Amino acid sequence: MANITPEDAFLNDYDPAAFDRPSVAVDLVLLGIHAGRLSALLVERDQPPQAGRWALPGGFVGIEESLDAAAIRVLRDKAGLADAHLEQLYTFGAIDRDPRMRVVSVAYLALLTEDAVAPASTGARITPAAIDGDPLVATRADGEDLPLAFDHAAILTRARDRLRGKIDYSDIAFAFLPPAFTLRALQEVHEAVLGTRLNKPAFRRRMLDRVVGGRRLVATGMREADASHRPAELFRLA
Amino acid sequence: MANITPEDAFLNDYDPAAFDRPSVAVDLVLLGIHAGRLSALLVERDQPPQAGRWALPGGFVGIEESLDAAAIRVLRDKAGLADAHLEQLYTFGAIDRDPRMRVVSVAYLALLTEDAVAPASTGARITPAAIDGDPLVATRADGEDLPLAFDHAAILTRARDRLRGKIDYSDIAFAFLPPAFTLRALQEVHEAVLGTRLNKPAFRRRMLDRVVGGRRLVATGMREADASHRPAELFRLA
DNA sequence: AAAATAGTGTCTTTCAGACAGTATACA
DNA sequence: TGTATACTGTCTGAAAGACACTATTTT
Known about the structure:
The structure is a homodimer. Chain A has helices spanning 6-12, 67-77, 114-117, 152-166, 183-194, 200-209; strands at residues 23-34, 37-44, 54-55, 58-60, 85-92, 103-111, 126-132, 137-140, 145-146, 181-182, 217-223, 233-237. Chain A is built from 6 helices and 12 strands. In chain A, strands 1, 2, 3, 4, 5, 6, 7, 8 and 9 form a 9-stranded mixed sheet that branches. A 3-stranded antiparallel sheet of chain A has the order 10-12-11. Chain A folds into 2 domains: 22-166, Nucleoside Triphosphate Pyrophosphohydrolase, CATH 3.90.79; 178-237, Arc Repressor Mutant, subunit A (Orthogonal Bundle). Chain A starts with 5 loop residues before the first helix and ends with a strand. Chain A is an alpha+beta fold. Helices cover 25% and strands 29% of the residues of chain A. Chain A is globular, with a radius of gyration of 21 Å. Chains A and B meet through helix 1, strand 1, strand 4 and strand 5 of A and helix 1 and strand 5 of B. The structure holds a DNA duplex.
């Protein structure tokens, strides 16, 4: 072990500028709860290859731009969103994932509130689609299953799995909600992400007892406005 | 497939071939349990920049090589290891993380058994170092704290956090162990990763009841060989 | 026999699921 | 007053922590 091999010497003198390099891109998985279902914002491709298929919004990373900065730029310029919870998801680097050229794509997870997902209406070039099933299927509000471009079904699957894995022990669920929210809304977020129904008293207890990152749920004393029956209390994270 | 034109690009008005691209590299976080502590294999840099500092083994990704293939190649050629549990960790893309050029580095986690970590002895160019504390410190077996190169302390920190987050609900602990192992060895892996002591009866119950990925612990009927007192039974995952 | 670790039985606490009940708002 | 939903009390069962005990092997 630890001998200096010819490969070591070669790599020490390796000049990457002399070789072709992959392009580096970011792709954004924009997720929100829409009509009670976990949904992604997808963009219809209008150019070949894969014209007519639906893709994640993305863009190439500039030579003087960090990965995070590129993700923020795509969020703003391609999705028209000023702000969202953004976290890096996974990097996809299969040789043939894009038929035009070698592209290594760093996927980001962006979590949106319901009012950020809804304006992208069905029929437009960017639309929310419920993601469900295994293998994953993206279904638009009109019931149409949208064909996905490139390896984007794999990216969406990994995004959903990440979300399911983290929701129980992190504060990501709150990224889907406005600053003040009802416990029912929080439960609906959990149910949409996990794809299961949850027990209400146990859920309430767990959420009210829980401390995540030094923060916990506190009652605001205010109540939801538009309920047709008894309005629930609004909580916030503090 | 269609002609490759600038219009084919993800962003209609952006031709990546016309711009400088970052280099893409992989860095390997080689982790194992050494002397009861979670330890990483580090390589001493013998060239500037940062000569004398300790780095993760890494290498550039070839234009016709997937990220996973590059990680396997580095594992073999730079670390001299034929096989290990390999999983992608995170991609580091700050603009100035390498002073020589723009490098986007995809970090991989590689988990090794004790006999793969141990041969790299203290004093050699590649050495195991216990990683502990917050901020993270890498300590060689002789007690020396090793200065880390570039952003590799941040990479190691993220590797440790990933491990701690996954050990309770995945089978990664077994990647540190040979095919047959005692329950005490398994508990020592958990304790080294989490940095805490665990309750023995509860740990045994949990492990023997647990089913992860359709597999569970089964007794082999064999016992450990070199114990100076009552030898423990060997288990395997099946 | 002594020493040391393997392995188990059991008590207690904690917490989630289930279910039924009370409270409060709107029609 | 009816109805729908918010919110809570309590029972039960599952699982973890703590601790003490028995079992088995080497020296």
